[in-house]
Specification:
The chain is α/β, with parallel strands linked by helices. Helices cover about 40% and strands about 20% of the residues. It is built from 10 helices and 11 strands. Helix 2 crosses helix 3 and helix 5 packs across helix 6. The protein starts with a strand and ends with a helix.
Length: about 325
């Protein structure tokens, strides 16, 4: 009998997920593998939202943001008794392997499925946060960087015109990979990220801004991750301490959507292709992740990376202090 796999997207959406879906489906069909899509992620697995997905189903989606399979967070999936319902749905559809596209929390859910059912699985990392250990880049990160960078470029025009300090709040509750990349490329005078929260001091921030003004700067941009705090509070404190009119802008969910960049699309396609090639060779109980390290595609045993935390490149943070002089 031909192999049958299930494909789902979970967690927060990321531009390029549809490219990954396309990569999985078209590669699988070329290999004679049947593909079921599961709508609404782990929630849809519990609700039996299985759909046949073929070549026509992935036509014209490569340039679209979001995910055609949709994604919905599921509290019930955390309960073993509820997961068993989902497992019965997998067995009913005679699923031989599972491919999950999502972020760091999503791969833990996938690992639980394989551990409890023995069904082999492959994880494709997709997250605008780029916080998945074991891969240099996740699907969607490059698009989110460019979206936020475009916003900062536009805000800088206004900041310079009105001679103001602007705090730009960027997504990232626990990690500052996105903020660091955007702040560096956007020429931010200061970058504030959760990993280095202990270094944040309002007096030092104000002193840095004041020193810049003394050197002739007529405006400043602070790139700040949402996990650091509320940008509105920072703007209020800076305004009071420096006797200026500091402004803030929360970029929010515009960073998740939009047309994926060429890099995000390519990453989605090649990750999808590799995931199918990997799952064809896997045995019961195995769980792997596809990723990219030093510009080379890699296949990693999930057990080796699942509980490891990706670290920020502090050297980039220190570089920006020099570039912002």
């Amino acid at each position: 009998m031909p192999m049958t796999i299930a494909l789902l997207t979970t967690g927060g959406d990321a531009p390029g997920m549809n490219a990954a879906i396309r990569g999985v489906v078209r590669t699988a069909i070329s290999e004679g593998i049947e593909v079921f899509g599961i709508e609404e992620g782990y929630s849809g697995l519990l609700k039996n939202y299985f759909i046949d997905i073929g070549l026509a189903g992935v036509s014209g989606i490569i340039n679209k943001g979001g995910t055609i399979l949709r994604t919905l967070r599921s509290k019930d999936f955390h309960l073993e008794s509820k997961r068993k319902i989902g497992y019965e749905n997998l067995f009913d559809h005679k699923i031989d392997g599972i491919i999950v596209i999502g972020g760091d929390g999503s791969r833990k859910g996938m690992y639980a499925i394989t551990k409890e059912t023995g069904i082999p699985s492959v994880f494709i990392p997709a997250s605008i946060d780029n916080d998945v250990f074991g891969t240099d880049y996740t699907i969607g990160f490059d698009t989110a960087v460019n979206t936020a960078l475009d916003a900062i470029d536009r805000i800088r025009d206004t900041a310079a015109s009105h001679e103001r300090v602007f705090i730009v709040e960027i997504m990232g509750r626990d990690h500052g990979f996105l903020t660091l990349e955007v702040g560096l490329a956007g020429g931010a005078e200061l970058i504030l990220i959760p990993e280095l929260k202990q270094e944040i001091n309002m007096d030092k921030i104000c002193n840095t801004l004041f020193t810049g003004f003394k050197r002739g700067k007529n405006s400043s941009i602070i790139a700040m991750a949402e996990g650091v705090g509320m940008s509105s509070n920072f703007a209020r404190i800076i305004s009071k301490k420096m006797n200026i009119d500091a402004k803030y802008s929360v970029l929010g969910y515009i960073q998740r959507g939009g047309t994926p960049t060429a890099f995000s699309r390519k990453l989605g396609l090649v990750f999808g292709y590799e995931a199918v090639k990997i799952i064809k060779k896997m045995k019961a109980g195995q769980s792997k992740m596809t990723g990219i390290q030093n510009n080379k595609l890699v296949s990693i045993n999930l057990i080796d990376v699942i509980n490891k935390e990706k670290k920020i490149d502090k050297k980039l943070y220190e570089m920006n202090k020099i570039f912002a002089i």
